[in-house]
Design brief:
With 542 residues, this protein is α+β, with helices and mostly antiparallel strands. The protein has 3 domains: 217 residues, Aldehyde oxidase/xanthine dehydrogenase, molybdopterin binding domain (Aldehyde Oxidoreductase, domain 4, 2-Layer Sandwich); 161 residues, 2-Layer Sandwich (Aldehyde Oxidoreductase, domain 4); 118 residues, Aldehyde Oxidoreductase, domain 4 (2-Layer Sandwich), CATH 3.30.365. It contains 15 helices and 24 strands. A 7-stranded mixed sheet has the order 14-15-12-21-18-19-20. Strands 5-6-7-8 form a 4-stranded mixed sheet. Strand 5 and strand 6 form a beta hairpin. Helix 2 packs parallel to helix 5, helix 5 packs across helix 6 and helix 11 crosses helix 12.
Amino acid sequence: MGKWTRRAFIGTGSLVGGGLVLGVAGVTLAPSRHGLVADDAAEKGQLTTWITVTPDNFTTILVPHCDMGQGSQTALAMMAAEEMEADWELVRIKEAPALDAYANAYLLRAFTGDSMPPPLGRAIDYGAYRLARWFGTQLTGGSMAVRGTGFGMCIAGAAAKEMLLQAAAERFGVPVSECTAAASRVTHPASGQSAGFGELVKAATAIPAPAHPALKDPDTYTLRRTARQRFDIPPKVDGSTGYGIDFTLPGMLHAAVDIAPVQGGKLVSVDPAPAEAMPGVKQVVQLEEAVAVVADSYWQARQALGKLSPVYDDAGHGSVSSASIFAAFDEALGTPPDMPSNAAKVITADYRVPFLAHATMEPMACTARVDGDQAEVWAGTQDPLNARSTAARALGLDANQVKLTNLPLGGGYGRRLILTFDYVDLGVRIARAASPTPVKMVWSRENDIQHDYYRPAAMSRFAGALDGQGRPLAVASHYAGGGNAEAVYMPYAIADRRDDARDASHHIRTGEWRSVLNSQHGFFKESFIDELAHAAGKDPYR
């Protein structure tokens, strides 16, 4: 995408060693986050980091989040277009590429909103951006896309509008305060002069992005608060959306993979001959923890893979089972929590939930082409910058030697987040073996279930005490398998509340989920409240 530069260093402050400078008298101003643009911005019509206008008057809004069906890309584009006064019919939405310039900058805004004073807010936004670049973070998760990045999109849209207004005022020879913007045009009502955004964009790109553009009064919104069709729905309905599993390249080969069934296990041996004798097979790739077959088609690769009999070690975990894990939980929980001696009735109960796989509709898939010290990757992820870093590490390259194109993903729910890019790691290593031919690796559903980053299995042991009127005196729990104070918190007016985490570690890898730990502990807590109500002869809904 070329080099990136800051069109103007806004404010009187500076950056030292990549960090923000804080002064005793106040916060030294940071550069405006939305002013980071490519050095060929004028040629591209790039007004701010996320907004480009072309001479045909179309506005393209780059959204630094993936859309898994939640509608966030459409929502974020609406927020930018509202402030910009862009004609929604002339707006195009694209996912931002996996480049450092699009690292998450506004995640903290999901918690602070616009409550911070502008100079402080700008410093924090830019500091968050620098940290996101450092860690390679461009994630979509935690329901933070609209709550966080939405603020940045509003600022970017408002800044673009002010730049276009200034360009129009200079063109018309009038004060900028006399110009208005609407429907992708700037008008000077007094003289009747008017110009489309596309006519003004070249001049506007030479104007520094304002640090604190004025945002619209919500009462004047014309786009937000209206029902608009999500841009991703039509291609999903007609089947034209190309997910990671659908991606193709000319001359591409296909890979099926078998992975050590026990986490941490290594490939001990495999005879490749039975697979190599099958039609269409190009090679058998032996990796540290897996074996893959590369063939002309996925069906040929799968059929040939089934002819292999790989031997793996069990990393010392061969005797571990669901039963043994829950037995360890049970032992760790010990006896039920003590209850007050003046209780009229004591109730105890155990609850447990198993490991759960995400089972996304689209199984894991990764297409890669490795050619010397350069690589290209195509995959669906919830954090393309981190996925790019994963690919680079697997290949022994720098991140800037890897180009990653994030594709629509058929479900994520945390399975395609940071630290879960095993499918990218495997995909690029298999492709390296077939270099420079591109290879698409697709996991079978069996791979997908067996090698998930599971929702943690968990178990809780509750005890509760009731007084003579059936009112709860105390509720306490011991829990194992994951949890924290927020997850186990019980929002009821019970004076004596105690929770105790017990350690019962295991080797099974776990990951993020929708609702995270509340999907376990919410079930535990509410079930036990029902048990208490039943024991007291009360309606649990009253």
